[in-house]
Amino acid sequence: MEVRVPRRRGTELALTVAAVLLPVYGYCDVGLARNGSVPPGAAGYGAGLGLLALLAHLAVRLRAPYADPLLLPIAVLLNGLGLVLIYRLDLETPGDRAAPTQLVWSTIGVGLCVAVVVALRDHRLLRRYAYLSVVAALVLMIVPIFFPAVNGARIWIRAGGLSIQPGEFAKILLAVFFASYLAANRAALTTTGRTLWRFVQLPTGRVLGPVVTIWLLSVGVLVLERDLGTSLLFFGLFVILLYVATGRAGWIAVGLLLAAAGAYAVGSLEPHVHGRVQDWLHPFASIEAGRGPNQLAQSLFAFAAGGVLGTGLGHGDSILIGFAAKSDFILATAGEELGLTGLTAIFLLYALLVERGYRTGLVLRDPFGQLLAIGLASIVALQVFVIAGGVTGLIPLTGMAMPFLAQGGSSVVTNWIIVALLIRLSDSARSQPPAGECAGQDAGPPRPGERAA
Amino acid sequence: MSRYIRHAAAFCALLLVALLVNATRVQVLDAETYDDNPANRRRAIERFHQPRGDILVEGRPVTGSKDTGEQLRYERTYRDGPLYAPVTGFSSQVYGTTFLEHAEDALLSGTDPMLAPLPLWHDLTRTRSPGGDVATTVRAAVQRAAHAGLGGRKGAVAALEPGTGRILALVSSPSYDPGRLAGTGAGVTRAWERLNADPGRPMLNRALRQTYPPGSTFKVVTAAAALDAGLVTDLDAPTDSPDPYTLPGTATRLSNEVSGCEDASLRYAFQWSCNTVFAKLGADAGLGTMAAAARRFGFNTPGLTVPSAVATSTFATSVDRAQLALSAIGQYDTRATPLQMAMVAAAVAGGGYVKAPRLVDRTTTGSGDAVGATAARTLRQAMGPRTAARLRELMTDVVEEGTGGNAAIPGVTVGGKTGTAQHGFGNAGTPYAWFVSWAQRPRELEAAVAVAVVVEDAAADRADISGGGSAAPIAREVMRAALATPSRSGD
């Protein structure tokens, strides 16, 4: 009896169409709110976004037919919303238009997504490049040190008119490395080593050493570059993957303890970070000192002004945040103009994206694939938490791009590649024969690499 | 491994919950605190985001709004700013609002719930109603006459319609252009500093906010108290008053500027403003009678609004008999705003009733639909109708044969009272010239206008400062303007 796994490509197409129409509606809404007329570029913008989404859909339909049908629509919707929010903020800064550039980067991102889905036939191929990945990641993180700092952080490479944040791409490379390394050494990590107390079992230094070294290096580089958001992200990613791979809660506890100690040390010694912590503890200190509200205070004002239903697109004053309103603080515009309702919807979209990644990780059977899926989904989850928590005053603010929403080419491209990899992984997960069945049973076309499972 | 994946997923879910809870805190629970923070510019941005409603004089706006395209977008403009400044006040992006701009701010800025036909829907969609308009009771010709009459000299004029309490003119001099304070920028700050440093205090609304010793014009109140209390029954009977009059319990002798005040009749004393007679009348009437009469006219009653807030006029109540005698002739601690003295004149002209003075006739939405209208309201009865009739007689005599001859208008019944108020340490300051009056057309039942004029002219020769000389001609022109334009009042 043949078991047919539903492909759900029709669902994806319908959702993608909706994911294109929503931002187009938002784009028109901004125009109507500001000038009383639909912006002249609405049709072209809609057609362009639609074409991109359709292209991505076709690539998935042809090359990853079993992929999770939610991944692509969520990415399209978030990217489209981001473009609308940036376009809306561009109206306040006529001299500095970011939306066209962002559209170009989004196109490149979708293009790379398509390229990954088409070119990468099996995620297991990536295991071969684990060590190349880690070297590349380190190079990418070190290179910006030789470029001038921008706003206190050395994370950009400027070439011609373009500026690239290579650290963004390093996220994926490190996830690949961590997943590959932990998958290969899982057994050694869990079974060998000495036991400290009753629960904390230390692995042999030979096994854990390389991972810790790499991690320390990357964190060190980031502290040097003062990009603490990314540093936090890498640490979180490392801890989550280590836990998933080994199940050692004790290590997590030790890791968190070390992190807390490190955070305290950096927070009290490094002036940049110390300032951020003080801002978080006393967001209105600058107001009381007579220097006017700082960015965090302005961000909180923006969220508060949104209330439950928001002011409506185009009606808010989130531009008061000033610098970085379109990038790190983009969520404040969403919070003010779409309200708690819109903000919750956006959070849930991210949650859904992460959940699909985790589900893929649960269904997959090869440890590398599992860890990679968990790693990629966790990157999204941690990024959202770090920056959303930062701009809403939940945790100290650290610079980081809201995935898909924020202005920033490197970030958009990176996130599209993450989605492409998740599409590839979920295709593998859903097309593999159901567990417990005979491997010889024919459940679809034979897939390369499947025999190796 | 799937068990650990589930644990990690639970951790991510925890992060999501933390984000949502915190977002709810910021956006809903603590939102008010953030919105109210003075450093949050949103209130100001929203406030100036739309054109402000206008203040109208005889149907024509004396205000306007200018789109600057800046963050605080609409700026106030004023037509004839210095002329109407005591009426409108100013509306500034930096320095807030005053007077009508302040009192009717909710309506003008569009936040008044009365402007929204569907308040709940407005709350939900966060739409703000266009600013409403405020139609004033001021009449342009009267206002102009008063402004021209003062001619830049320090002083104030308040003119009322006695039967309705409508304020026909409200002038303070020197004045300023409130348009200079609208908007933002260095120019506004400079104008503000310059106006505040100006020794002429141009932003002081002398008609409403400045109290002066009323001097002899207060004798209207003292006369009303004496007549109502039955102290004087015959206007022409001689009063038992010496000249000079030694203030009770002291050796201070009070004298007069005019002769013939010894045992003068009330008519003569009022006509020629005998200090001795009225000081003794006040002392004889006693503190209770005098304080009660003053209160009925509006003294010592704080909280009067027109709807701009009016300073409280005072009549001292913890005094000995000598101080009471001085208080009765408008000195010692007796202080009155020009509007209060116009109310005194209006009470005489209006049969003893004090109508609530009001500056706003009606309010409308931006598209002209009525929001509210004010009606004539009696505040208090200041004196009996018979006393009022006798005081009318006395005041008419002042203009026809006494010190107020300069206020006479041919063919019109005019009643008035002059005043020259000494002030300053040892009365060294330049005296204030007062004139309060009313005018009634023949064959009309009610007086058309009551006026109070005060001139504090520091530059003038001391001898020239007298109510009859400086203030009465201004009052005459104001009354003439009021009589020339037909009354619009329907209430």
UniProtKB/TrEMBL annotation, chain A:
Keyword rRNA-binding: no
Chief site of localization: membrane
Subcellular location field: Membrane
Region listing for Disordered, in residue ranges: 430-453
Record key words, sorted: Cell cycle, Cell division, Cell shape, Membrane, Transmembrane, Transmembrane helix
GO BP, one annotated term: cell division
Gene Ontology CC annotations of this record: cell division site; plasma membrane
A Gene Ontology molecular function term of the record: lipid-linked peptidoglycan transporter activity
Pfam name, any one: FTSW_RODA_SPOVE
Chain ranges passing through the membrane: 42-58, 70-89, 101-120, 129-149, 169-187, 207-224, 236-266, 329-350, 371-395, 401-423
Topology in the lipid bilayer: Multi-pass membrane protein
Name under which the protein is recorded: Cell division protein FtsW
Organism for this UniProt entry: Streptomyces longispororuber
From TrEMBL, chain B:
Signal peptide: 1-23
Occurrences of domain Penicillin binding protein A dimerisation (ranges): 52-134
Taxonomy, superkingdom: Bacteria
Entry keywords, A to Z: Signal
One Pfam family linked to the record: Transpeptidase
GO biological process, one term: cell wall organization
Molecular function GO terms recorded: penicillin binding; peptidoglycan L,D-transpeptidase activity
InterPro entries in UniProt: Beta-lactam/transpept, Beta-lactam/transpept-like, PBPA_dimer, PCN-bd_Tpept
Penicillin-binding protein transpeptidase domain segment(s): 155-479
Gene Ontology cellular-component annotations: plasma membrane
Cross-referenced SUPFAM superfamilies: beta-lactamase/transpeptidase-like
Protein name: Penicillin-binding protein
Organism: Streptomyces longispororuber
